[in-house]
Design a protein that fits this description.
This protein is an alpha/beta fold and 295 residues long. Helix content is 45%, strand content 19%. Strands 1, 2, 3, 4, 5, 6, 8, 10 and 11 form a nine-stranded mixed β-sheet that branches. Strands 7-9 form a two-stranded antiparallel ribbon. The protein starts with a helix and ends with a helix.
């Protein structure tokens, strides 16, 4: 990537107790000129490690975990470059791939977001695009596209966004604490007249699931917010009937599924179902106070 391209983009990365992936992240970010890291209230030594391993980064330390979207919005407000690379801490990408993404935005001024093809490892692709979540999905295994394509949704682990477009639509909606914020961002981009594209010639490595330590508590928090965010997305893009049906299914299976997996000593599955059911209950009775405390 040439100096001019380096000067036109800023990498924005959100961390939260991300110590296990910081060495790889530091190696990636060392190759970029402008870097903003927003720490979402980590309880470990993530911030200290960032300052030691990534000294050229501008570090914004939030007092609490306000969610993925809110933290990214805060990072985007601090940049002045034309483009912003939104990068998960467990995702790695080469400058040459980012240069290709920037060239794509340059060549298509109506594109607001372009993403690379993600890979779990050298041979296993990540599902990096799909139709909108409420539309029929392709059958069978994910196939890596062979050319640049327009998509309803792009995986949120690595996206190059046009700062002007991102700002114009208000960035990520803070209603989505975790999950579906990338669906909502892409859909609002399209509603505002911007296209979203996948550039499969650009590649990123995203093993997934390594940015936070696995535990029953982590599973509960993630699955609670997955179900809660799906409720919001269904209500917004499909309608109240679909959101109600989703809540009803969760609540019908919540207690028996949680109890069964607890008896079988399968803590991860029990935590998942408990999270789903509690999210359904919070949505049914608008228990926002509970939702805001699950972080």
């Amino acid at each position: 990537m040439d100096d001019m391209t380096h000067a036109r983009l800023t990498v924005v990365c959100v961390t939260y107790n991300s110590g296990p992936v910081l060495s790889a992240l530091a190696a990636t970010l060392a190759r970029f000129l402008h870097v903003v890291i927003v720490d979402n209230g980590s309880g470990d030594d993530t911030v200290a490690q960032i300052r030691q391993q990534i000294p050229h980064a501008r570090v914004i330390v939030r007092p609490d975990n306000a969610g993925f979207g809110v933290a990214n919005n805060e990072g985007l407000r601090r940049i002045e470059t034309e483009y912003a690379l939104l990068l998960n801490p467990d995702c790695q990408i080469e400058p040459e791939a980012v240069a290709l993404l920037a060239q794509t935005l340059d060549a298509h001024p109506d594109v607001g977001i372009v993403a690379p093809q993600g890979w779990r490892n050298r041979t296993v692709p990540q599902k990096s695009w799909r139709p909108a979540f409420f539309r029929p999905q392709p059958a069978g295994r994910y196939q890596v596209p062979d050319q640049l394509m327009v998509a309803d949704w792009l995986h949120g682990s690595c996206q190059l966004v046009r700062t002007q477009a991102f700002t114009a639509i208000g960035g990520f909606d803070p209603a989505f604490f975790l999950y579906y914020e990338d669906d909502d961002l892409c859909l609002r981009m399209q509603q505002a007249g911007w296209r979203c594209m996948l550039q499969p010639a650009a590649k990123a490595l995203h093993p997934g699931g390594v940015s936070s330590a696995p535990s029953a508590r982590t599973t509960f928090i993630k699955q609670f917010h997955y179900a809660r965010s799906r409720q919001i997305a269904l209500q917004r893009y499909v309608g109240g009937g679909a959101a109600f049906a989703h809540r009803a299914r969760l609540l019908a299976a919540w207690i028996p599924a949680t109890a069964l997996y607890a008896l079988l000593l399968r803590r991860q599955h029990a935590s998942k179902w408990f999270g789903w059911g509690l999210a359904g209950l919070c949505a049914m009775f608008d228990l926002r106070g509970i939702s805001s405390r699950i972080r």
